[in-house]
Amino acid sequence: MGVASRLERVGPDAERYRRLLGHLEPVGRRVRSRFEVDTRALAAVRISFGLILLVDLLVRWGNIEQFYTDDGAYPIEAYEATYSQFTGLSVHALSGELWFQQLLFGIAGLFALAFVLGYRTRLVGFVSLGLLLSLQARNPAVLNGGDKLLRVLLFLALLTPLGERWSVDALRRGSARASVVGFGTAALLIQPLMVFSQNAVLKHQGNTWYEGEALQIAMSNDVMTIFLGNHLTAYPTLLEAMNWAWVGLLAGSVLFLLVTDGRVRAAFALVYVGAFAGMLLTMSVGLFPLVLTTALLPFLTPPFWDALRRLVPTGLLERLPSRARLESIAGRPLERRAFDALEQRGYESKLSFVRAYCRSLLTVVSVLALVSILLYGTAYVTDHDLPDELETSVDQQQWGLYAPNPTEGYSWYAVEAQLESGEEVDAFGNGTITDDRPPDASKEYDTFRERKFMQTVWASGNGDTDGIIAVDYAEWACEQAIDRRGDSVESITVHRFYQPSPIDGEYEETGRFTVVEQAC
Protein backbone atom coordinates (compact mmCIF):
# COMPACT_ATOMS: atom_id res chain seq x y z
CA MET A 1 0.00 0.00 0.00
CA GLY A 2 2.88 2.33 0.86
CA VAL A 3 4.55 1.65 -2.50
CA ALA A 4 1.32 2.25 -4.38
CA SER A 5 0.76 5.54 -2.64
CA ARG A 6 4.34 6.58 -3.44
CA LEU A 7 3.82 5.72 -7.09
CA GLU A 8 0.63 7.74 -7.11
CA ARG A 9 2.56 10.67 -5.73
CA VAL A 10 5.48 10.19 -8.14
CA GLY A 11 3.20 9.78 -11.12
CA PRO A 12 1.69 13.28 -11.07
CA ASP A 13 5.10 14.78 -10.18
CA ALA A 14 6.74 13.02 -13.10
CA GLU A 15 4.02 14.20 -15.43
CA ARG A 16 4.42 17.79 -14.25
CA TYR A 17 8.17 17.47 -14.71
CA ARG A 18 7.69 16.21 -18.27
CA ARG A 19 5.34 19.08 -19.02
CA LEU A 20 7.87 21.55 -17.60
CA LEU A 21 10.58 20.10 -19.81
CA GLY A 22 8.23 20.34 -22.75
CA HIS A 23 7.72 24.04 -22.08
CA LEU A 24 11.45 24.65 -21.59
CA GLU A 25 12.57 22.74 -24.66
CA PRO A 26 11.71 25.52 -27.15
CA VAL A 27 13.49 28.01 -24.89
CA GLY A 28 16.53 25.76 -24.82
CA ARG A 29 16.51 25.50 -28.60
CA ARG A 30 16.37 29.29 -28.92
CA VAL A 31 19.23 29.77 -26.47
CA ARG A 32 21.27 27.10 -28.21
CA SER A 33 20.65 28.70 -31.60
CA ARG A 34 22.07 32.00 -30.34
CA PHE A 35 25.45 30.33 -29.77
CA GLU A 36 25.42 28.24 -32.95
CA VAL A 37 27.96 29.31 -35.57
CA ASP A 38 28.02 28.52 -39.28
CA THR A 39 31.22 26.64 -40.09
CA ARG A 40 31.74 28.90 -43.11
CA ALA A 41 31.98 31.79 -40.65
CA LEU A 42 34.61 29.88 -38.68
CA ALA A 43 36.54 29.28 -41.89
CA ALA A 44 36.43 33.02 -42.58
CA VAL A 45 37.69 33.63 -39.03
CA ARG A 46 40.62 31.30 -39.64
CA ILE A 47 41.55 32.93 -42.93
CA SER A 48 41.20 36.41 -41.46
CA PHE A 49 43.37 35.63 -38.44
CA GLY A 50 46.03 34.07 -40.65
CA LEU A 51 46.12 37.17 -42.85
CA ILE A 52 46.27 39.44 -39.78
CA LEU A 53 49.27 37.48 -38.51
CA LEU A 54 50.97 37.97 -41.88
CA VAL A 55 50.16 41.70 -41.91
CA ASP A 56 51.46 42.02 -38.36
CA LEU A 57 54.75 40.36 -39.28
CA LEU A 58 55.08 42.55 -42.36
CA VAL A 59 54.53 45.76 -40.38
CA ARG A 60 56.97 44.68 -37.66
CA TRP A 61 59.58 43.68 -40.25
CA GLY A 62 60.35 47.34 -41.02
CA ASN A 63 61.57 47.86 -37.43
CA ILE A 64 62.87 44.38 -36.74
CA GLU A 65 66.42 45.53 -35.97
CA GLN A 66 65.35 48.52 -33.89
CA PHE A 67 62.84 46.71 -31.66
CA TYR A 68 64.02 43.09 -31.50
CA THR A 69 67.84 42.95 -31.65
CA ASP A 70 70.74 43.88 -29.37
CA ASP A 71 71.83 46.46 -31.94
CA GLY A 72 68.49 48.22 -31.62
CA ALA A 73 66.76 50.46 -29.10
CA TYR A 74 65.48 47.59 -26.97
CA PRO A 75 68.20 44.96 -26.41
CA ILE A 76 67.61 41.77 -24.46
CA GLU A 77 69.19 43.26 -21.32
CA ALA A 78 66.56 46.01 -21.33
CA TYR A 79 63.81 43.44 -21.89
CA GLU A 80 64.94 41.36 -18.91
CA ALA A 81 65.33 44.41 -16.67
CA THR A 82 62.04 46.15 -17.48
CA TYR A 83 59.47 43.42 -18.07
CA SER A 84 60.71 40.67 -15.77
CA GLN A 85 57.29 38.99 -15.78
CA PHE A 86 57.94 37.99 -19.40
CA THR A 87 61.47 36.67 -18.82
CA GLY A 88 61.75 33.14 -20.12
CA LEU A 89 58.49 33.36 -22.07
CA SER A 90 59.91 34.56 -25.37
CA VAL A 91 61.75 32.40 -27.87
CA HIS A 92 62.68 35.66 -29.58
CA ALA A 93 64.74 36.59 -26.50
CA LEU A 94 67.06 33.60 -26.92
CA SER A 95 69.25 35.69 -29.21
CA GLY A 96 69.65 39.36 -30.02
CA GLU A 97 71.08 38.72 -33.46
CA LEU A 98 69.26 40.07 -36.50
CA TRP A 99 69.46 36.79 -38.43
CA PHE A 100 67.78 34.92 -35.56
CA GLN A 101 64.85 37.34 -35.50
CA GLN A 102 64.52 37.15 -39.28
CA LEU A 103 64.47 33.35 -39.05
CA LEU A 104 61.68 33.39 -36.44
CA PHE A 105 59.71 35.91 -38.48
CA GLY A 106 60.03 33.65 -41.52
CA ILE A 107 58.91 30.57 -39.56
CA ALA A 108 55.95 32.48 -38.13
CA GLY A 109 55.01 33.60 -41.64
CA LEU A 110 55.02 30.02 -42.94
CA PHE A 111 52.81 28.83 -40.08
CA ALA A 112 50.44 31.76 -40.62
CA LEU A 113 50.17 30.84 -44.30
CA ALA A 114 49.47 27.20 -43.39
CA PHE A 115 46.80 28.46 -40.99
CA VAL A 116 45.14 30.41 -43.81
CA LEU A 117 45.07 27.25 -45.91
CA GLY A 118 43.70 25.19 -43.03
CA TYR A 119 46.52 22.64 -43.02
CA ARG A 120 46.48 20.78 -39.67
CA THR A 121 44.52 23.75 -38.48
CA ARG A 122 44.48 23.39 -34.71
CA LEU A 123 48.13 22.33 -34.40
CA VAL A 124 49.35 25.03 -36.77
CA GLY A 125 47.08 27.56 -35.07
CA PHE A 126 48.49 26.88 -31.62
CA VAL A 127 52.05 27.10 -32.95
CA SER A 128 51.15 30.45 -34.54
CA LEU A 129 49.64 31.59 -31.25
CA GLY A 130 52.79 30.54 -29.41
CA LEU A 131 55.01 32.46 -31.82
CA LEU A 132 52.72 35.49 -31.52
CA LEU A 133 52.90 35.40 -27.71
CA SER A 134 56.67 35.06 -27.91
CA LEU A 135 56.94 38.03 -30.25
CA GLN A 136 54.66 40.16 -28.09
CA ALA A 137 56.55 39.21 -24.93
CA ARG A 138 59.89 40.17 -26.53
CA ASN A 139 58.88 43.84 -26.71
CA PRO A 140 55.72 44.75 -24.75
CA ALA A 141 56.59 48.44 -25.22
CA VAL A 142 55.21 48.42 -28.79
CA LEU A 143 51.87 46.75 -28.00
CA ASN A 144 48.39 48.24 -27.80
CA GLY A 145 44.93 46.89 -27.02
CA GLY A 146 44.59 45.43 -30.51
CA ASP A 147 47.50 43.08 -29.84
CA LYS A 148 45.90 41.89 -26.61
CA LEU A 149 42.57 41.33 -28.33
CA LEU A 150 44.30 39.43 -31.13
CA ARG A 151 45.91 36.90 -28.82
CA VAL A 152 42.75 36.46 -26.73
CA LEU A 153 40.46 35.96 -29.73
CA LEU A 154 42.91 33.70 -31.55
CA PHE A 155 43.07 31.43 -28.51
CA LEU A 156 39.27 31.33 -28.23
CA ALA A 157 38.92 30.65 -31.95
CA LEU A 158 41.24 27.66 -31.66
CA LEU A 159 38.74 26.08 -29.26
CA THR A 160 36.33 25.82 -32.21
CA PRO A 161 36.65 23.70 -35.40
CA LEU A 162 38.24 26.38 -37.61
CA GLY A 163 39.26 23.79 -40.18
CA GLU A 164 35.76 22.38 -40.72
CA ARG A 165 35.30 24.17 -44.07
CA TRP A 166 37.39 25.76 -46.82
CA SER A 167 40.57 24.02 -45.69
CA VAL A 168 43.04 21.30 -46.52
CA ASP A 169 41.78 19.47 -43.45
CA ALA A 170 38.24 19.51 -44.84
CA LEU A 171 39.45 18.10 -48.15
CA ARG A 172 41.15 15.29 -46.28
CA ARG A 173 38.02 14.44 -44.33
CA GLY A 174 35.71 14.71 -47.30
CA SER A 175 32.84 15.88 -45.08
CA ALA A 176 31.91 18.90 -42.99
CA ARG A 177 29.26 20.01 -40.54
CA ALA A 178 27.05 22.92 -41.52
CA SER A 179 27.18 24.50 -38.07
CA VAL A 180 28.58 23.86 -34.61
CA VAL A 181 27.62 24.90 -31.09
CA GLY A 182 29.33 24.50 -27.74
CA PHE A 183 31.17 26.31 -25.01
CA GLY A 184 33.92 27.20 -27.49
CA THR A 185 31.54 29.00 -29.84
CA ALA A 186 29.86 30.65 -26.84
CA ALA A 187 33.21 32.04 -25.65
CA LEU A 188 34.06 33.24 -29.15
CA LEU A 189 30.74 35.09 -29.40
CA ILE A 190 30.75 36.48 -25.86
CA GLN A 191 34.27 37.95 -26.04
CA PRO A 192 33.53 40.82 -28.48
CA LEU A 193 30.29 41.54 -26.61
CA MET A 194 32.33 41.92 -23.42
CA VAL A 195 34.68 44.30 -25.24
CA PHE A 196 31.80 46.46 -26.49
CA SER A 197 29.72 46.39 -23.31
CA GLN A 198 32.64 47.09 -20.99
CA ASN A 199 33.85 49.91 -23.23
CA ALA A 200 30.36 51.43 -23.18
CA VAL A 201 30.34 51.39 -19.37
CA LEU A 202 33.85 52.86 -19.15
CA LYS A 203 32.90 55.62 -21.59
CA HIS A 204 29.89 56.42 -19.41
CA GLN A 205 32.33 57.16 -16.57
CA GLY A 206 33.67 60.06 -18.63
CA ASN A 207 31.95 63.29 -19.57
CA THR A 208 32.30 63.47 -23.35
CA TRP A 209 30.97 60.33 -25.05
CA TYR A 210 27.47 60.59 -23.62
CA GLU A 211 27.45 64.31 -24.38
CA GLY A 212 28.11 63.73 -28.08
CA GLU A 213 31.49 65.50 -27.98
CA ALA A 214 34.06 62.71 -27.76
CA LEU A 215 34.45 61.83 -31.42
CA GLN A 216 35.17 65.43 -32.35
CA ILE A 217 37.87 65.50 -29.66
CA ALA A 218 39.30 62.21 -30.92
CA MET A 219 39.37 63.42 -34.51
CA SER A 220 41.19 66.59 -33.44
CA ASN A 221 44.14 64.42 -32.39
CA ASP A 222 46.38 64.83 -35.43
CA VAL A 223 48.68 61.99 -34.43
CA MET A 224 45.82 59.48 -34.42
CA THR A 225 43.88 60.61 -37.50
CA ILE A 226 44.76 59.39 -40.98
CA PHE A 227 43.24 59.47 -44.48
CA LEU A 228 39.57 60.48 -44.19
CA GLY A 229 39.99 61.29 -40.51
CA ASN A 230 42.03 64.36 -41.40
CA HIS A 231 38.94 65.96 -42.96
CA LEU A 232 36.13 64.98 -40.59
CA THR A 233 36.68 67.82 -38.13
CA ALA A 234 35.19 70.15 -40.74
CA TYR A 235 31.82 68.42 -40.19
CA PRO A 236 30.98 68.68 -36.46
CA THR A 237 27.32 67.73 -36.94
CA LEU A 238 28.33 64.54 -38.73
CA LEU A 239 30.83 63.73 -35.98
CA GLU A 240 28.19 64.17 -33.31
CA ALA A 241 25.84 61.82 -35.17
CA MET A 242 28.65 59.27 -35.56
CA ASN A 243 29.48 59.66 -31.86
CA TRP A 244 25.93 58.73 -30.82
CA ALA A 245 25.78 55.91 -33.36
CA TRP A 246 29.00 54.41 -31.99
CA VAL A 247 27.84 54.71 -28.38
CA GLY A 248 24.58 53.02 -29.39
CA LEU A 249 26.41 50.14 -31.06
CA LEU A 250 28.61 49.63 -28.00
CA ALA A 251 25.83 49.84 -25.43
CA GLY A 252 23.38 47.76 -27.47
CA SER A 253 25.78 45.05 -28.63
CA VAL A 254 24.19 42.26 -26.58
CA LEU A 255 20.73 43.14 -27.87
CA PHE A 256 21.83 43.59 -31.49
CA LEU A 257 24.19 40.61 -31.79
CA LEU A 258 23.22 38.00 -29.20
CA VAL A 259 19.46 38.28 -28.83
CA THR A 260 18.90 38.40 -32.59
CA ASP A 261 19.24 35.54 -35.04
CA GLY A 262 19.17 34.81 -38.76
CA ARG A 263 19.12 37.71 -41.22
CA VAL A 264 18.67 40.30 -38.46
CA ARG A 265 21.83 39.20 -36.68
CA ALA A 266 23.79 39.17 -39.93
CA ALA A 267 22.52 42.66 -40.80
CA PHE A 268 23.62 44.06 -37.45
CA ALA A 269 26.99 42.32 -37.76
CA LEU A 270 27.53 44.03 -41.11
CA VAL A 271 26.73 47.39 -39.51
CA TYR A 272 29.50 46.80 -36.98
CA VAL A 273 31.88 45.69 -39.73
CA GLY A 274 31.10 48.92 -41.57
CA ALA A 275 31.96 50.89 -38.43
CA PHE A 276 35.30 49.08 -38.16
CA ALA A 277 36.02 49.80 -41.81
CA GLY A 278 35.43 53.46 -41.02
CA MET A 279 37.85 53.18 -38.11
CA LEU A 280 40.47 51.69 -40.43
CA LEU A 281 40.13 54.62 -42.85
CA THR A 282 40.21 57.37 -40.24
CA MET A 283 42.28 56.36 -37.20
CA SER A 284 45.74 54.95 -36.57
CA VAL A 285 44.90 52.36 -33.93
CA GLY A 286 46.96 49.44 -35.18
CA LEU A 287 45.36 46.04 -35.64
CA PHE A 288 42.18 46.97 -33.77
CA PRO A 289 39.87 47.41 -36.81
CA LEU A 290 41.08 44.18 -38.43
CA VAL A 291 40.77 42.14 -35.24
CA LEU A 292 37.35 43.58 -34.40
CA THR A 293 36.13 42.80 -37.91
CA THR A 294 37.31 39.21 -37.50
CA ALA A 295 35.53 39.03 -34.14
CA LEU A 296 32.23 39.84 -35.88
CA LEU A 297 32.51 37.13 -38.56
CA PRO A 298 30.99 34.39 -36.32
CA PHE A 299 27.82 36.51 -36.09
CA LEU A 300 27.26 36.18 -39.84
CA THR A 301 24.50 33.59 -40.10
CA PRO A 302 23.68 31.04 -42.86
CA PRO A 303 21.47 33.44 -44.89
CA PHE A 304 24.48 35.71 -45.37
CA TRP A 305 26.79 32.92 -46.53
CA ASP A 306 24.10 31.46 -48.81
CA ALA A 307 23.57 34.86 -50.42
CA LEU A 308 27.32 35.35 -50.77
CA ARG A 309 27.68 31.99 -52.48
CA ARG A 310 25.02 32.94 -55.02
CA LEU A 311 27.08 36.00 -55.93
CA VAL A 312 30.17 33.93 -56.72
CA PRO A 313 30.36 32.96 -60.42
CA THR A 314 29.80 29.25 -61.04
CA GLY A 315 32.98 29.06 -63.10
CA LEU A 316 35.04 30.27 -60.17
CA LEU A 317 33.48 27.71 -57.84
CA GLU A 318 34.32 24.94 -60.30
CA ARG A 319 37.97 26.00 -60.31
CA LEU A 320 38.29 25.81 -56.53
CA PRO A 321 40.41 22.91 -55.20
CA SER A 322 38.57 19.66 -54.64
CA ARG A 323 39.43 16.38 -52.98
CA ALA A 324 39.83 14.73 -56.37
CA ARG A 325 42.24 17.42 -57.58
CA LEU A 326 44.36 17.30 -54.44
CA GLU A 327 44.80 13.56 -54.04
CA SER A 328 48.36 14.02 -52.79
CA ILE A 329 47.11 15.71 -49.62
CA ALA A 330 43.58 14.36 -49.50
CA GLY A 331 44.50 11.23 -47.58
CA ARG A 332 44.17 10.81 -43.85
CA PRO A 333 46.78 12.74 -41.84
CA LEU A 334 49.85 10.86 -40.64
CA GLU A 335 48.78 10.83 -36.99
CA ARG A 336 45.35 9.40 -37.91
CA ARG A 337 46.98 6.66 -39.97
CA ALA A 338 49.15 5.90 -36.94
CA PHE A 339 46.02 5.68 -34.79
CA ASP A 340 44.48 3.28 -37.31
CA ALA A 341 47.56 1.07 -37.15
CA LEU A 342 47.48 1.02 -33.34
CA GLU A 343 43.79 0.10 -33.38
CA GLN A 344 44.55 -2.85 -35.62
CA ARG A 345 47.15 -3.98 -33.08
CA GLY A 346 44.61 -4.10 -30.26
CA TYR A 347 44.96 -0.67 -28.66
CA GLU A 348 41.45 0.43 -29.57
CA SER A 349 40.23 0.89 -25.97
CA LYS A 350 43.25 2.98 -24.97
CA LEU A 351 42.95 5.15 -28.07
CA SER A 352 39.26 5.64 -27.37
CA PHE A 353 40.18 6.84 -23.90
CA VAL A 354 42.75 9.28 -25.34
CA ARG A 355 40.21 10.67 -27.81
CA ALA A 356 37.55 11.04 -25.12
CA TYR A 357 40.07 12.69 -22.79
CA CYS A 358 41.11 15.20 -25.46
CA ARG A 359 37.48 16.07 -26.23
CA SER A 360 36.74 16.48 -22.53
CA LEU A 361 39.85 18.62 -22.06
CA LEU A 362 38.78 20.88 -24.91
CA THR A 363 35.34 21.26 -23.32
CA VAL A 364 36.82 22.04 -19.90
CA VAL A 365 39.17 24.65 -21.35
CA SER A 366 36.27 26.20 -23.27
CA VAL A 367 34.16 26.40 -20.10
CA LEU A 368 37.03 27.99 -18.16
CA ALA A 369 37.61 30.48 -20.98
CA LEU A 370 33.94 31.48 -21.00
CA VAL A 371 33.86 31.86 -17.21
CA SER A 372 37.07 33.93 -17.21
CA ILE A 373 35.68 36.31 -19.83
CA LEU A 374 32.57 36.95 -17.75
CA LEU A 375 34.38 37.00 -14.41
CA TYR A 376 37.35 39.21 -15.26
CA GLY A 377 35.47 41.47 -17.64
CA THR A 378 32.78 42.18 -15.08
CA ALA A 379 35.28 42.48 -12.21
CA TYR A 380 37.29 45.14 -14.02
CA VAL A 381 34.39 47.36 -14.98
CA THR A 382 32.79 47.10 -11.51
CA ASP A 383 36.08 47.42 -9.56
CA HIS A 384 35.12 44.24 -7.73
CA ASP A 385 37.95 42.80 -5.65
CA LEU A 386 39.02 39.28 -6.56
CA PRO A 387 41.30 36.93 -4.62
CA ASP A 388 44.98 37.80 -5.00
CA GLU A 389 45.55 34.60 -6.98
CA LEU A 390 43.13 35.84 -9.65
CA GLU A 391 43.76 39.59 -9.51
CA THR A 392 46.73 39.60 -11.92
CA SER A 393 44.56 38.33 -14.79
CA VAL A 394 41.92 41.06 -14.57
CA ASP A 395 43.80 43.38 -16.93
CA GLN A 396 43.55 40.76 -19.67
CA GLN A 397 39.87 41.71 -19.91
CA GLN A 398 40.41 45.49 -19.79
CA TRP A 399 39.02 47.15 -22.92
CA GLY A 400 39.28 50.91 -22.47
CA LEU A 401 39.95 52.21 -25.99
CA TYR A 402 39.26 55.97 -25.89
CA ALA A 403 37.62 55.58 -22.48
CA PRO A 404 36.53 57.21 -20.30
CA ASN A 405 37.45 60.20 -22.50
CA PRO A 406 39.67 60.66 -25.55
CA THR A 407 42.89 62.57 -24.89
CA GLU A 408 42.79 66.28 -25.63
CA GLY A 409 46.32 66.56 -26.96
CA TYR A 410 48.99 64.72 -28.89
CA SER A 411 52.77 64.34 -28.95
CA TRP A 412 55.64 63.81 -31.33
CA TYR A 413 59.34 63.38 -30.72
CA ALA A 414 62.61 64.60 -32.18
CA VAL A 415 66.26 63.73 -31.55
CA GLU A 416 68.65 66.67 -31.52
CA ALA A 417 72.39 66.12 -32.03
CA GLN A 418 75.00 68.44 -30.52
CA LEU A 419 78.10 68.63 -32.74
CA GLU A 420 81.69 69.43 -31.80
CA SER A 421 81.26 72.82 -33.44
CA GLY A 422 78.50 73.66 -31.00
CA GLU A 423 75.84 73.41 -33.68
CA GLU A 424 72.57 71.68 -32.80
CA VAL A 425 70.93 69.75 -35.64
CA ASP A 426 68.25 67.16 -36.31
CA ALA A 427 69.99 63.83 -35.66
CA PHE A 428 67.82 61.86 -38.09
CA GLY A 429 67.02 64.48 -40.70
CA ASN A 430 68.12 67.76 -42.21
CA GLY A 431 68.12 71.18 -40.63
CA THR A 432 67.41 71.98 -37.00
CA ILE A 433 64.75 71.06 -34.46
CA THR A 434 61.97 73.63 -34.03
CA ASP A 435 58.76 73.87 -32.05
CA ASP A 436 56.74 74.23 -35.23
CA ARG A 437 53.73 71.95 -35.42
CA PRO A 438 54.07 69.42 -38.30
CA PRO A 439 51.48 69.63 -41.12
CA ASP A 440 50.41 66.03 -40.38
CA ALA A 441 51.60 64.78 -37.00
CA SER A 442 50.67 61.16 -37.78
CA LYS A 443 53.51 61.09 -40.33
CA GLU A 444 56.04 61.77 -37.57
CA TYR A 445 55.89 58.03 -36.87
CA ASP A 446 56.66 55.29 -39.37
CA THR A 447 54.18 52.92 -37.70
CA PHE A 448 51.82 52.88 -34.73
CA ARG A 449 54.34 50.62 -32.97
CA GLU A 450 56.95 53.36 -33.11
CA ARG A 451 54.41 55.72 -31.55
CA LYS A 452 53.72 53.27 -28.72
CA PHE A 453 57.44 52.74 -28.15
CA MET A 454 58.14 56.47 -27.92
CA GLN A 455 55.37 56.82 -25.35
CA THR A 456 57.21 54.19 -23.30
CA VAL A 457 60.50 56.04 -23.79
CA TRP A 458 58.84 59.22 -22.49
CA ALA A 459 57.46 57.38 -19.45
CA SER A 460 60.88 55.83 -18.84
CA GLY A 461 62.56 59.22 -19.03
CA ASN A 462 60.18 60.37 -16.30
CA GLY A 463 61.18 57.61 -13.91
CA ASP A 464 59.24 54.60 -15.15
CA THR A 465 61.26 51.35 -15.58
CA ASP A 466 64.13 53.15 -13.78
CA GLY A 467 64.92 55.05 -16.96
CA ILE A 468 66.39 51.96 -18.63
CA ILE A 469 64.32 52.12 -21.82
CA ALA A 470 64.99 55.84 -22.26
CA VAL A 471 68.74 55.37 -21.81
CA ASP A 472 68.89 52.44 -24.23
CA TYR A 473 66.93 54.42 -26.79
CA ALA A 474 69.31 57.36 -26.35
CA GLU A 475 72.34 55.10 -26.87
CA TRP A 476 70.76 53.70 -30.02
CA ALA A 477 69.96 57.23 -31.20
CA CYS A 478 73.62 58.19 -30.65
CA GLU A 479 74.73 55.35 -32.90
CA GLN A 480 72.22 56.35 -35.56
CA ALA A 481 73.33 59.99 -35.39
CA ILE A 482 77.00 59.04 -35.70
CA ASP A 483 76.23 56.82 -38.69
CA ARG A 484 74.55 59.78 -40.39
CA ARG A 485 76.78 62.66 -39.32
CA GLY A 486 80.10 61.10 -38.38
CA ASP A 487 82.18 61.34 -35.23
CA SER A 488 81.44 65.05 -34.83
CA VAL A 489 78.37 64.15 -32.75
CA GLU A 490 79.11 64.80 -29.07
CA SER A 491 75.70 64.17 -27.53
CA ILE A 492 72.01 63.85 -28.30
CA THR A 493 68.84 65.09 -26.65
CA VAL A 494 65.46 63.45 -27.13
CA HIS A 495 62.66 66.02 -27.11
CA ARG A 496 58.94 65.50 -26.68
CA PHE A 497 56.56 68.04 -28.17
CA TYR A 498 53.03 68.30 -26.82
CA GLN A 499 50.23 70.02 -28.71
CA PRO A 500 46.78 70.49 -27.13
CA SER A 501 44.15 69.47 -29.69
CA PRO A 502 42.41 72.40 -31.46
CA ILE A 503 38.95 71.32 -30.33
CA ASP A 504 37.58 74.85 -30.68
CA GLY A 505 39.55 75.46 -33.89
CA GLU A 506 42.39 77.39 -32.21
CA TYR A 507 45.86 75.97 -31.56
CA GLU A 508 47.54 76.64 -28.23
CA GLU A 509 51.30 76.99 -27.87
CA THR A 510 53.31 73.80 -28.37
CA GLY A 511 55.18 72.54 -25.31
CA ARG A 512 58.70 71.11 -25.46
CA PHE A 513 60.02 68.65 -22.87
CA THR A 514 63.35 66.89 -22.51
CA VAL A 515 63.00 63.12 -22.38
CA VAL A 516 66.65 62.11 -22.01
CA GLU A 517 70.15 63.44 -22.75
CA GLN A 518 73.04 61.19 -23.67
CA ALA A 519 76.73 61.75 -24.35
CA CYS A 520 77.90 59.96 -27.48
Automatic annotation (TrEMBL):
Q: Mind telling me which InterPro entries this protein's record contains?
A: HTTM-like, HTTM_dom, Sporulation_signal_mat
A single GO cellular-component term on record: endomembrane system
Q: Which UniProt keywords apply?
A: Membrane, Transmembrane, Transmembrane helix
Sorted alphabetically, which SMART domains does this protein's record hold?
Answer: HTTM
The keyword Nuclease is assigned to this record: no
**Membrane association type:** Multi-pass membrane protein
Q: Which residues form a coiled coil?
A: none
TM helices/strands, residue ranges: 39-59, 98-116, 180-201, 241-260, 267-300
The subcellular location is: Endomembrane system
Q: Record keywords: Cell membrane included?
A: no
Where is each HTTM-like domain found?
34-304
Entries under Pfam families matching the protein: HTTM
What PANTHER family would the database entry show? HTTM DOMAIN-CONTAINING PROTEIN (PTHR39535:SF2), SPORULATION-DELAYING PROTEIN SDPB (PTHR39535)
What protein name does the entry list? Vitamin K-dependent gamma-carboxylase
Organism the protein comes from: Halostagnicola kamekurae
